[in-house]
Amino acid sequence: MKNKSLSAQYLVRFTGGYILLATMWLLIMHLWMRHDQTLLSWTRLPLDIGFIAASALFGYSLITQLWHQIDLQRGLSRLATRLHQLSINAPPSPLFEQEVCRLAVEEVDLRLAWIGLVDPATQQVVPVARWGPASDYVDVVQIRLDDAERSCGPTGTSLRFGQPVVAADIATDPRMKPWRDAALPRGLRSSAALPLYIDGRVIGTLNLYAEQPDFFSETVIDIGMLLAGNLAHIIESRKRATERDAAQAAFQQSEARFRRLAEQAPDIIFRYALAPQSQLDLVNPAVRDILGYEPEQLLTQMPAVSAFIDQSQIEQAKHLIAQGRGQIQLYTRRNDGRYVWLDVRFVVVDGAVEGIARDVTAQVEAAARLARYELLSAYTRDIVLFIRASDGRILEANAAAERVYGYSRAELCAQTIYDLRAPETRQIVRDQMNQANMQGILFETLHLRRDGSVFPVEVSSIGADIGNERVLLSVIRDISERRKAQAELDLLRTALNASAQAIVITDTNGTIEWANPAFTTLTGYSVAEMLGQHTRLLRSGQQDRAFYAAMWAQILSGQSWRGELINRRKDGSLYHEEMTITPVKRDGVIEHFIAVKQDISERVQREQKQTIINALNEVMRAAQNWAELALVLVQQLHTITQADAVALWRQTDETWQIEQVFGDPSLFTGLADWLSHWEQQWIDCPVWRKPAPAGLAPTGEIVVVSFRCFDCAHHHCHAVATLICARSISAFIVDLLAAAAERVGNALRRIDLFEQVQHAHDKLRAAYDATIEGWARALDLRDHETEGHSRRVTELTVRIAERMGFSDEEIVHIRRGALLHDIGKMGIPDAILNKPGPLDEQEWAIMRTHPALAVELLRPINFLAPALAIPWCHHEKWDGTGYPRGLRGEEIPLAARIFAVVDVYDALTSNRPYRAAWPPECALAYIREQAGRHFDPQVVEVFLALYAENGYTWDGFISEELNYA
Known about the structure:
By secondary structure, the protein is an alpha+beta fold. The strands form five sheets. A five-stranded antiparallel sheet has the order 2-1-5-4-3, sandwiched between helices. It is built from 34 helices and 25 strands. Helix 2 runs parallel beside helix 7 (218-264) and helix 32 runs antiparallel to helix 33. It is elongated and about 185 Å long. Strand 1 (112-119) and strand 2 (124-131) form a beta hairpin.
């Protein structure tokens, strides 16, 4: 009734326009026929034209509508035919439903067709297939029958009432409001929802959409319902067929599983027909393992029953078979002649015995052994209890039980195993007994003594049949001492695990068997990763084979080994390790090695850094001035950093100047301005790094090391080193440079101070020397006849001393002593000193005091002390006849011996008040004559050699410009 009402509404909407045209056409025809004869011919013309136009319009519309209906019905007929063919070919879901939607769209010229099935669990309409240009509209629909708003549309209404529902114009139909905004842009103007009805229930809908309003006529809906009915039948049939196939497949799988279970069962499964002829119908492969027969052999030609069991057992079996079911233990002969005990359980069904035979040989033999072991249990140190499996009653106890528990045997047999268990363990006793009865069990628990004390035990229990009773044979061992030892072992293990040092235990081949957590911290490998691995996995390649060969030779000989080596972590980084390996022996045989490892990388780096710093200090100490120190510094910095080039800069007049370069000097062109520009950043930073500036350095980075002196109050920066490095320097090198920077700064400061002091010292020494030369000049001026004597003898003495190997420092003191050789004459009266004639004995005695006077005069002056040898000893003679002390030979200082030769030569070749100057030849002859008496022969030899080298003259040899000022 509801469907009819819907069709009537549809007809009014669908044909209203055409009825209006038909009414107008009838009206015009009525007027035309009524007035055709009464009106004049010229007035009839408009009426005739109107009648003809209305007739043409109505005829065109009617023909168009009829043609559309005919084409639509043809499409539906083709759709029905294709649907029938499609159901015969039966493609799998969802291809079938998808093909139905495609055919509906293409044959009826629709915008969209989709099939939705109701999910009973969620009440949601689930799209299973779709087709058409507007297929994505289905994703927007989302219809739920339990949603009041989204279930009132055509699809929801059709599902709830089982009737076709048409939306003639989606733009105006209020039921389409939730989906209108999505439908209209996709060209959907009218829709029809056709219920898929089967067996009195609606399983889904076929939903059709057209791009024209008023598309679906009653005829189309009727044909569509036929198609929907066929579609529902096909879908349901396919669903039932699928379920039937699934059930059949499940049954086949179940049957296959049962067959596999029977084939793989450890017990013999059999069926023995009693009539009409006794024969074995079925037996599984377990008979091969238990009795040694092939199943096919028993099924085709089974030996007589007497070949398996004796006659008495046959009679017992027949008695039970007569009762229809039973259980019996049979002592059965195998095919190989051995015997086994079979526990056979069977039932008689349809004249055949069907049963299972289990091999219980082990249990039967265990019971027999149990009886044999009673005597042994009475004397064992372990507790032996026989416990009834059903209630835990103690049936028997040995002497050890009496001793440990403190009860007599009678008292123990009056208790249950529950009474001997600590209260907190009693709730699991039943489960443990069941497990022991079924398969045996080994566990630890707590037991009670008579005095109430609790002690730990290890229980090994297994079930056995003794007589007609199931008994648990339990061997119980007091493990108090073992627990104590285990606690100590656990404590030791905890200590080892808590150790900051890595501890590793290996076998004798070096395979790791245990390691503590510190091993992971040290190497990066987890303990799980290293178990079973050889320790060579940690090798870095820094030690050669000889190193490891020596180590293994030592530990395999039973000696401990301790040393340092470099290993590799899991991440590839290297570290320094100190390791001690100790062999672990048992009965004199090495079984394991224990290695204790400690990361000493920081210590090694500190030592390396200190070694480098010490070496740097040594070479800096050897430097005597700024130039030497600068050269040493750039060389050492290059050695430390492997930089491409190193330059040492010194600030002068507010600019930085290069003092020394190691490498290509051109790399530092233009860096002075760059250093000044960044000075505020690096001036307070020991090591400052920055990428190489474009155009100044090729690649890498520039490292600036400022050498600041922290010994002075202002922490003045004495110099700066710039390093051009192709690669970034490591953190270790940065730290090393920072540590060295302060020391270098202090060294530079000390060099500065030393050079300042040296400069002051040189100035002071120059002043001293000028004073001495002034004294010498004054002496010459006082003794007019010996004027220039001090200059000549000093110059010649210095030349001979240089030839004889005196050092520069010694030459300085020789020069001073020569200039001051007659300083003692300042204490000689002028009358004696300038007497024109020979001196008498008294005057000579006074004259000979001038060396002693020189000593008294000069000794208080510290810096002149090294120069006393000449003033004091230049009148001593080689043969000891000189004055003032009568020294002889090498007792006389060498400087004085040299000066004595020069002084006598100059005196002989100079005019004196009491005689004229000797010719040089005569003076030289005298010198030769006095060698070995007055003079040191070696000095005379050097003196004469120099004289010969100078062309047998002293002219030009002695400087005329000796400065006394």
